[in-house]
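Please check these two lines:
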Amino acid sequence: LRAQCSQRLPSPRMDLRHVPATREKGWYLALMAPNLKGPNYAWLDPSRLYCHPQGLQDCVDDLLQPFQGDPIDMVAGIDAMGFILGAAAAAVLRKGFLAIRKAGHLCVQTLAQPYTDYSGREKVMEVRTDAISPGLRVLLVDQWVETGGTMRAAIQLVERLGGVVAGRGWARPRPAGVAAVCIEDSEGGRWIREHYKCAHCVPPSLQPRFDRHQ
């Protein structure tokens, strides 16, 4: 991945004008930047991808492609980087956007859900209670699913309020589901894949490298 990145981005600054002649699924993954600050940070920084206009557009298109024709009532993005892709997806779908926040930021009535994030830290997530009504079909979007704890907490919040996140057992058309740039092959990632309709951007040939954080 780093070699691909260096080939497409020959200078330290990003070339926002460069678009490959053939845009295969996931070509924009090479725009992401590796961790340069050590183990206290995520192994990869996807935010550079969002600065590239065609890269961002193709990423969102790939995330939404599996849900074409599915009934979606609302897109929900997970604090904080899920807000970027979630809001972009909502704009493309012409649907409303709901922010699922880390606890302590919402000044209205909320529902809370404790969880353990990818770094092993105990946290609490919350969502406003007036946005999700029973049967509302929600597409959940986050930047990354590593251990699956954060996404699973968001699913629990939506379902506790009566919302629907599509499971594999649903008859077509399935309502909404889960989308992220990458869903790693962790225990939590596999559980989400097994129980919910999912979309991600990593081609099968690159998935093992992403699972190994290479």
Observations:
- The chain has one domain: 28-211.
